[in-house]
Specification:
CATH topology of the largest domain: D-Maltodextrin-Binding Protein, domain 2
CATH architecture of the largest domain: 3-Layer(aba) Sandwich
Strand order of the largest sheet: 2-1-3-10-4-11
Shape: elongated
Helix content: 25-40%
Structural class: alpha/beta
Length: 273
């Protein structure tokens, strides 16, 4: 568990609405009220920025949201499944499906949010073709995002994968590596900082933007516009039709959020609704 994750949970448990003295009252309150805010997990960066706008819009509809930031892709689903969160917004549908299969989590997507095209970034070369013989390239070390990174390097011509490859592909599935590139698997949030140590890295846009990288300006290769990797709002199975879920989705998929995304991210993040 990361330090940020521990701090987030410590703050969550220390909140008056969730102390032992008031937990019984909070449990009886409706989710999304002042007595029991909707606990929404997001990753730091654009997901958090957009959720702050969603929180303000939802408040006008009587929905109170508390945002909890994470620095990895695993803990938000674990926290949601265990009841520490009510919903999260950070992951693609393929990633969610992989997590459900691998971890047995009873989670379900309820709405599309944003598309973050993954890009390849480098401080050492200006194109993927210029990667050196025996160079080091980095990809995320988590399921589906790592496969997504490999597929992007294959799209750019650095490696070859089976014709039917999808996000479940791994390093072991590589069928061609003419430059004998060495592949380093790192936590997704660490990839921007690794650019000094590798020749190129496949980085999710939310982490790229947080590090000051602009996909449309700095990426030497980027996912095609028809990428299936739109992000989702996710809740526990059984909560899909709850009133607070409908209010949350309505706030997120609003014209105000579309305008905010367009103005703030200049095409690097695209509404998927």
């Amino acid at each position: 568990m990361t330090i940020a994750r521990r701090a987030a949970l410590a703050a969550l448990l220390a909140t008056p609405a969730l102390t032992a003295a008031t937990r019984a009252h909070a449990q009886g309150a409706e989710i999304g009220t002042a007595a029991r805010p909707l606990k929404m997990g997001v990753t730091a960066g654009p997901h958090a920025q957009v959720m702050e706008m969603v929180r303000d819009i939802a408040a006008k509809d009587g929905l109170v949201i508390r945002i909890i930031e994470f620095t990895d892709y695993i803990q938000p689903n674990v926290a949601l499944a265990s009841g520490d969160l009510d919903a999260n917004s950070f992951q693609t549908q393929p990633f969610l499906e992989q997590q459900v299969r691998d971890r047995g989590l009873k989670l379900v997507s309820v709405a599309k949010t944003l598309t973050f095209p993954m890009g390849i970034y480098s401080k050492k070369v200006k194109s993927v073709d210029a990667l050196p013989q025996g160079g080091r390239i980095a990809i995320p070390n988590d399921p589906t995002q790592g496969g997504r990174g490999l597929m992007l390097f294959a799209q750019a011509g650095a490696i070859q994968l089976p014709a039917n490859a999808d996000v479940r592909v791994t390093v072991a599935d590589i069928t061609g590596n003419p430059k004998r590139l060495r592949i380093v698997e790192l936590e997704a949030a660490q990839l921007p900082r690794a650019l000094d140590d590798v020749d190129a890295a496949a980085i999710n846009t939310n982490y790229a933007l947080t590090a000051g990288l602009q996909p449309t300006r700095d990426a030497i290769a980027i996912e095609r516009s028809d990428s299936p990797h739109s992000n989702r709002i996710v809740v526990r199975q059984g909560d899909e039709e709850k009133p607070w879920v409908r209010k949350l989705v309505r706030a997120y998929q609003s014209d105000e959020v579309k305008a905010f995304v367009a103005e703030t991210f200049s095409g690097s993040v695209i509404p998927a609704f």
